[in-house]
Amino acid sequence: MRILVIALSGIGDALMFTPALIKLKENFPNVEIDALVMFKGAEDIYKRLAQVSAVHYYDFINSNPVAALRYLLRFRKKYNMTINVYPANRREYNLMSFIIGARKRAAVSYLRKNLLNFGFLNNVTIKENDNLHNVEENVKLCEKLINSPIDEIPDLQLNLTEEELLFGEKFLLEKNVSEKDIVIGFHPGCATFKNHIKRRWEPEKFIGLGKNLIKDFNAKILLFGGEDEEKLKSEIIEGINSSSAFSVRTKTLLQSAAVMKRCNVFVTNDSALMHIAAALKLKVIGIIGPTNKDYIYPWHTNHKLVSLNLDCSPCFYYSPKPLTCTRKDMKFKCIKNLSTNMVYKVVNEFLN
Description:
The protein is α/β, with parallel strands linked by helices. 37% of the residues lie in helices and 16% in strands.
């Protein structure tokens, strides 16, 4: 028997499937489990897992449809089961699973747009529950596959090599970060597709927070994010205008994770790095605007969420449509009215 885990929706989503993956392998110890991903960070995470036999990486986003179809046909009828990692509420993901042609095609049946997105192509399903975390949704699906309840859900799985850990130590040494320093990590970015950039807390508020933390705690501020976020990080560093704030530039996601391990507190938008921080067991502060907090809070780690909890929130559920706001008084008020002082107070609670 062979199982293919289709983890295409994002790095954080792939990471949040790892507890279910552990339970799947425990119950099917002799089954070969492979993974299909389209983000290098997801590939890096999965290829370190003992539960995964092979990781297939393909850049579907930048590939033309014909080339992508040819690639998928390599897996045709080679798997007994495919699993679409939650959330995967897009017709492309359901079509991919169908094209691969496994006899069992497992996925969540979504409360919104399921029919429109070809959810009927899946034949082993559970009903989506808005009160459950992503990890719990994946575990519920796993329970159906193994036909047994799962009492204890594991942590997120993230394995760093000795080389990566040494990289982190060297980076911090070069930046003169000592063991006595209070180190605060910032991730001011997040995904930009489908208008998700509107989930970001404004740069000027990160600037104000950084200034306050340096003044009051003599903190070192580390700015994390991918290559496409360097301009954003530079803007914040210039605004803070202190030698105690600097950008963390690495070649891989897991090198960044090795540096993140040193953070006393990690302040982040709703992003993959929030879940990386959770896997590292950091103290995490999630700045949450339109997203359903039940879906995405940092799993199994000490965390606090900063949110206005407006009467219109949450308005972002898993759907392929772009993020929009229907408020008349202020668009995306849920994130724009989150003040620097609100987040500072929560950081202060963690540090005292």
